[in-house]
Amino acid sequence: MEEEKRRYLGSQRWNRLEERLFEILFLRQEIPLLPLHWEVDFRGVPVSGDLFCWREGVKPIVYAHTSGLGGFRATSALTRLIDLTANVRTNCQSGLRRKVPQMIKKALTNYLSWAAEDGGYSHLKYIPNTTVEVVDRNGEGSTLAAFIETRMRELAQAHRELLAIKPEQGTYSTDMDPESHGETSVINSGDDEPNNHAKSRVYVKREKEEEANEIAIKRELFDGSDDDITMADIPMASTTTLHSPAPPTSYIRPPPVVFGFFIVATSVILLTADASKEDADMIINFHVDMDFQNRSLGVWNALTVAIATCLARDDMMKRMGDFEEEGVVEESDPDA
């Protein structure tokens, strides 16, 4: 896998969470993804038994933090994702293709809502680390590229602004060592750097690499479908604007990796970007293109969405302290 990673990434340096997502997606047919006790909920669903965690000490990738009713909600949410591919095909065959993008967006948004509820941060005024957008396929390539780039950069910038240390704020702790969630020993992570609890602030410097001002999205070809969608349909633009040197930006804690599900007709493209890099240095990375019109990919489409969503959820859980409680509006007593 290391050779494949080097071939795919080239000279790029990814955030550890982006690397982990790449590793899981690369090995997703060979590693256990689901809790063993979920197997009973997926009887009658074409899910291979190898996807369940049979070995002791191996934690699943897609799972629920809450037990009891929370576990039932988790399996129900995943089942609805599995059904999405069949629903998309039904609409296309019924002449309702134009409704498909919004149908997919609603399904993905609902799954993200489940993740927020399961992660315990749905009640907070939080900035999400995942966006779901419908891309107008009829637009020009440069317009599509600009739309995708803008959405990803806006989300990353929102997190940088939230976590930036202002002069009047002083110094804050950057302890980022909460309990780990969803880690699996199947994938080696020996190159992880140990946490340094002595640091009180994080400095992010601009990287002076050749591709610093280039938006690089890996292109990948897929089996043809009725829509014949590939990454070539939405070519990414590159920027050559020169930027004057800027002082290092300090943050309360490193800004997160942001995820993007971009819907093009019946396909969903999964992208990530490391928000801890300044805008000129941030690269938008392509991971996978999911074809929701291919009947044989119903389970894998759902699991791919679930893998990315659960990784994003677990990272959000580590950052809950950055967000405030939703304000409670008290009803006035008309008789008072």
TrEMBL record:
<feature type="region of interest" description="Disordered">
    <location>
        <begin position="170"/>
        <end position="197"/>
    </location>
</feature>
<protein>
    <submittedName>
        <fullName>Uncharacterized protein</fullName>
    </submittedName>
</protein>
